[in-house]
């Protein structure tokens, strides 16, 4: 089948786009507003962009009634220029899901999800206690995308936290926490198996 998004009716019961672009890592973004109130929200349009310097991005694709544009995370980062990207393991799936609700601005999703805050080293927003890792980020750029409320937030990673229990022989071992990934619809997946592949010419 073939269809043109926004022009053709694909005829399926649900939009297949996000199911086709999967699995997607989840950026669990903690931020603070200008008054110091904390927000925590998961974003599945998330990824790394570069490694020297390390850069990450997440995209907001909706609005909420109590924000003039986008959602709380974007509003907070616009105001303060800082955020933390927390890594989500399988053991934190229920807390991550609890933090995804459409809560009013100013409500603390850490408290709603039963999570402990840990002070960051270089930025004001706290990180999630028990997360396998976290990136402290300074805002680099906010890019407005086509669409009513599509915004990409790009941050430069200025600090990296790693749970020592995740390291094995100096390697960040994903099988020790099973990264959670977003699929399409209401589906998620966790990484439970890895395998190596050498590029052509590598031994």
What does this structure look like?
This protein has 4 helices and 14 strands. The chain has 203 residues and is mostly beta strands. It has one domain: Roll (Pnp Oxidase, Chain A). The protein has a 7-stranded antiparallel sheet with strand order 3-2-6-9-10-5-4, covered by helices on one side. A 3-stranded antiparallel sheet has the order 1-13-14, with no helix packed on it. It is globular. The mean pLDDT is 96.
> Separation of termini?
41 Å
Number of helices in the DSSP assignment: 4
What's the helical proportion of residues? 10-25%
What is the average per-residue confidence, as pLDDT, rounded to a whole number?
Answer: 96
General form:
globular
Structural class comes to mainly beta
- Strand percentage, roughly? 25-35%
Strand order of the largest sheet: 3-2-6-9-10-5-4
The level 1 CATH classification is: Mainly Beta
The low-confidence parts are none
Q: How many structural domains can be distinguished in the coordinates?
A: 1
Give short descriptive properties of this protein:
203 residues; mainly beta; Pnp Oxidase, Chain A; 7-stranded antiparallel beta sheet; 3-stranded antiparallel beta sheet; 4 helices; 35% strand; globular
Give a quick precis of the structure.
The chain is mainly beta and 203 residues long. The protein contains four helices and 14 strands. 11% of the residues lie in helices and 35% in strands.
Write the layout of secondary structure elements.
Blueprint lengths: L16 H4 L3 E2 L1 E6 L5 E6 L2 E6 L2 E7 L11 H9 L1 E6 L5 H6 L10 H4 L4 E2 L8 E2 L4 E12 L6 E12 L4 E2 L2 E2 L7 E3 L5 E3 L13
Antiparallel strand pairs: 1-13, 2-3, 2-6, 4-5, 5-10, 6-9, 7-8, 9-10, 11-12, 13-14
């Amino acid at each position: 089948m073939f269809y043109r998004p926004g022009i053709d009716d694909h005829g399926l019961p649900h939009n297949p786009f996000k199911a086709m672009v999967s699995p997607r890592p989840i950026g669990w973004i903690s931020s603070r507003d200008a008054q110091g109130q904390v927000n925590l929200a998961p974003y599945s349009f998330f990824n790394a962009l570069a490694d020297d310097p390390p850069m990450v991005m997440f995209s907001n694709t909706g609005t909420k009634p109590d924000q003039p544009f986008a959602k709380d995370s974007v509003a907070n980062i616009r105001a303060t220029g800082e955020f933390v990207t927390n890594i989500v393991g399988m053991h934190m799936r229920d807390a991550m899901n609890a933090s995804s609700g459409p809560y009013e601005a100013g409500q603390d999703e850490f408290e709603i999800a039963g999570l402990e805050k840990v002070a960051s080293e270089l930025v004001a927003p706290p990180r999630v206690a028990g997360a396998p890792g976290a990136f402290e980020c300074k805002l680099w750029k906010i890019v407005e995308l086509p669409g009513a409320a599509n915004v990409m937030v790009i941050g430069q990673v200025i600090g990296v936290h790693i749970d020592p229990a995740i390291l094995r022989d100096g390697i960040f071992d994903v099988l020790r926490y099973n990264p959670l990934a977003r699929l399409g619809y209401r589906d998620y997946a966790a990484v439970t198996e890895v395998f190596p592949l050498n590029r052509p010419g590598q031994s």
